[in-house]
Amino acid sequence: MEWFIENWTLILTALIVVAVLVITIVAFFKLPVAMQRGKIKEWLLWAVTECERDLGGGTGVLKLRQAWSWFADSFPWVSKIISFEMFSAWVDEALVCMKHILETNKAVAEYVGGESDE
After folding, report:
1. 79-118 per-position pLDDT tens digit
2. Nearest CA to 40 among 78, 69, 7?
3. Of 3, 4, 85, 106, which has the maximum CB count within 10 A?
């Protein structure tokens, strides 16, 4: 009992973190499937942009594996449900979007390290 009294703030903090995590997961799964997929694809756009920034051009397989690793860490329950092939197709879609953004947004192109036309 003394241990509980001495560590009540730590216990309360842990309970709050767990509660927020559960609420976030439940809220995600309550979304329609199309919205869930959309949120994942938005996240993938960020992930492929960061992979491009970290690894540069010509490293497609490494970037795909790094994105999968981040995805499995960020969405562990989803990574067990979808196949790697589906994930790879989603990454391809995100890459098309990223390339368009890099061509049209100078600030993003500079962030990633690419050359801009302007």
Report:
1. 888 888 888 898 888 989 988 988 888 888 888 885 544 4
2. 78
3. 106
Q: How far is it, in rounded angstroms, from Cα 78 to Cα 84?
A: 11
Cα dihedral across residues 31, 23, 41, 75: positive or negative? negative
Amino acid identity for residue 102 in this structure: L
Return the sign of the alpha-carbon dihedral for residues 51, 63, 39, 14.
negative
40-57 per-position pLDDT tens digit? 888 898 898 888 888 877
Cα–Cα nearest to 70, from 98, 96, 45: 45
Residue with structure tokens 């953004």? 101
DSSP symbol at 7: T
Residues recorded for the chain: 118
Rounded CA separation 95/60 (Å): 10
**pTM of the complete model:** 0.60
